[in-house]
Amino acid sequence: MMIRPCGAQDIPAIFSIINDAARAYQGVIPADCWHEPYMPLDELEAEISRGVVFWGCDSGAELVGVMGVQDRGDVTLIRHAYVRTGQRRKGIGEKLLRHLKATTTKPILIGTWGTATWALRFYEKNGYRLLTRREIDRLLRT
User: Fold this and answer.
1) Given a cut of 80, is residue 142 above it in pLDDT?
2) Which of 52, 65, 81, 132 is such that its CA lies 20 to 30 A from the CA of 101?
3) Can you list the alpha helix ranges (DSSP code H) found in 66-132?
4) Residue 63 pLDDT greater than 90, yes or no
5) Which pLDDT score is estimated for 32?
6) How far apart are CA 130 and CA 112, in angstroms?
7) 30 upstream amide cis, omega within 30 of 0
8) Residues 94/119, Cβ–Cβ less than 8 Å
C-alpha cells in the first residue's frame, strides 16, 4: 500500500470512497443530516477549494482510502477520513492518519459524529482523546 497526495484526477474516486464508506452513518446520525449522496460532488469540490488537501492510499492500482488535512493557523484539522467498505480493517486508516500526523508539528483536531462509536474508538486507539463539550465549544468559537 502506498500513501500519496490526491489530485484533480482523483476526485471521482474520492467521491466514490466517501459516499460508499459514509453509508455506515445511515441510521446512526440524525436523520436530517443524512442524505444521498452523503457528500455531493459540489460539496467535495467546495471543501477542496477551502483548503482541504486529500491524501490517498492505493492498493494495487486502486484508491482504497482517503483522508483530508486542512491547515487552520494554530491547528491542523483532519477532515473526511474514509476507507472503502470492502477494504476496512486492513490498517489503511491508521497508515493515512500516521502519515498526516507526520506532516505537521501543530496540534491536530479531528471531528466526527459522537454517535459514530467505531470512529471514536479508532481515534482513541491512535492516541487521540475525546474533548469535553466545553472544550469543543471553545475551539469552535476560535
Assistant:
1) no
2) 132
3) 92-101, 117-125
4) yes
5) 92
6) 10
7) no
8) no
Q: At what angle do helices 11-21 and 41-49 cross, to 10 degrees?
A: 120
Q: Does domain 2-141 have CATH number 3.40.630.30?
A: yes
Q: Residue 81: count other Cβ atoms within 10 Å of its Cβ.
A: 23
Residues 82, 17, 37, 40, CA torsion sign: positive
Confirm if 109 and 77 have CB atoms less than 8 A apart. Answer: yes
Judge whether residue 141 has pLDDT over 80: no
Instruction: Break the chain into its structural domains and give their ranges.
Output: 2-141
Please report which confidence band the pLDDT of residue 6 belongs to, taking 50, 70 and 90 as the band edges: very high
- How far, in Å, CA of 135 to CA of 34, rounded? 26
Please, what's the b/e burial string for 44-59 (b: 16 or more CB within 10 A of its CB; e: otherwise)? beebbeeebbbbbbbe
The proportion of the chain whose per-residue pLDDT surpasses 70, expressed as a percent, equals 100
Whole-angstrom Cα distance, residue 105 to residue 136? 21
